[in-house]
Specification:
26% of the residues lie in helices and 27% in strands. By secondary structure, it is of the alpha+beta class.
């Protein structure tokens, strides 16, 4: 099998894990919410406690107190289909506060086909804060479309880039579910043909991963 020179950006993605972690995290960067004051642990729903004597200005109870484990949020079958040859365990990206943000990455080069998948969770202090962050990010990624039936609101967009005649097609799905945000990044390249996977392939793959990740957030593990 002959070796092919890789474009600079894709070479970085095939570098050691430390570099991959930084690259994957950059793909899903966004404003961080303050750390929630809740018990450490997996994603959990917290019941609303109220009484007749409670003041009307009482802070809104958060639906999700913490982010779930991202590397077990996507079904085994989904990982195999979207990232052939990748290790099912994935690689969790270090976070300064795992209750606020957690991200897992899968990537693999099988033959000449390269695939990369990121799943990221961000927990905010309220539904309103999550809605504001969601709205701002959608504005930054204009040109996509809504994804019905996924969370409280969801949006997907696919872009094609070319560097050194090598195409890369990347899809992003952003989901808001109550006070949580779920961000999926999925991309691919063919180093032999220098072409990228079809838009429909990348978009449907990203949406499939998003459905798994939202189900995990809601407590229904898909593995």
């Amino acid at each position: 099998m002959r070796s092919l020179p890789l474009p600079l950006t894709l070479t970085a993605r095939l570098s050691p894990v430390a570099v991959l972690a930084c690259a994957g995290w950059a793909l899903t960067s966004g404003p961080l919410a303050p750390a929630p004051a809740a018990e450490h642990g997996s994603a959990a729903r917290t019941g609303t406690q109220s009484s007749a004597s409670a003041p009307s200005t009482e802070a809104e109870t958060k639906t999700y107190a913490a982010a779930p484990a991202p590397c077990t949020s996507v079904a085994t079958s989904t990982v195999k289909a979207l990232v052939p040859g990748a290790k099912q365990a994935g690689k969790e990206i270090p976070s300064t506060d795992t209750k606020v943000r957690r991200t897992c990455s899968w990537n693999a080069l099988k033959g000449y086909d390269y695939r990369w998948l990121d799943v990221s969770y961000e927990i905010t202090d309220s539904d309103d804060e999550a809605t504001e962050s969601y709205t701002n990010r959608v504005k930054e990624k204009s040109g996509g479309g809504d994804v019905p039936g996924l969370g409280d609101s969801a949006y997907s967009i696919v872009n094609l880039t070319t560097e050194d005649k090598q195409q890369t097609r990347e899809g992003t799905v952003l989901v808001r579910a109550s006070n949580a945000l779920v961000i999926i990044t999925y991309n691919g390249s063919d180093f032999e043909s220098k072409k990228a996977p079809a838009t429909d392939v990348i978009n449907k793959g990203a949406i499939k991963a998003a459905k798994d990740a939202v189900a995990a957030l809601e407590g229904g593990q898909t593995n």
